[in-house]
Model the fold of this input.
Amino acid sequence: MGKMNYSKVEEALTEGLYKMKVNQILESSKNKDDPKALHPAQKFIAVVQELKWIKKTSPDIYKKIKISKKEISSLAEIIKKRRDSLKESEVKRIDELLEIIKKYKKKEMPQIDDEDLIEEENDRHHYKRHNVSEKWIPLDVPRN
Done:
């Protein structure tokens, strides 16, 4: 029996598997509307977590953004009871809450870039040594 060259067969098999995988991915993407879209219950969890986080820095967050705790707790009860069959108004309110919180964070808690933070710390501690935990020693002090 002669020698068989399997490289062409392997290439054809690899190419066929690749085409099948691409077709499978394309078909699955047609079925989904938006893969990054979150379920309303997940959005509500995000709202609650953001409120808890912001409340640590500003305790009167509910007054500032004009949301009552009763509204949050009632939405939580509704989601517990009928997670998959929420009304359109409830889903809309959850989205509004999320937007309100995003606007508040953007307005009241601006993000500082890493570069700016490093520059600010360097300016504040210009004459101090780095990498010495909380025991800053001035660089220009003579040693014994």
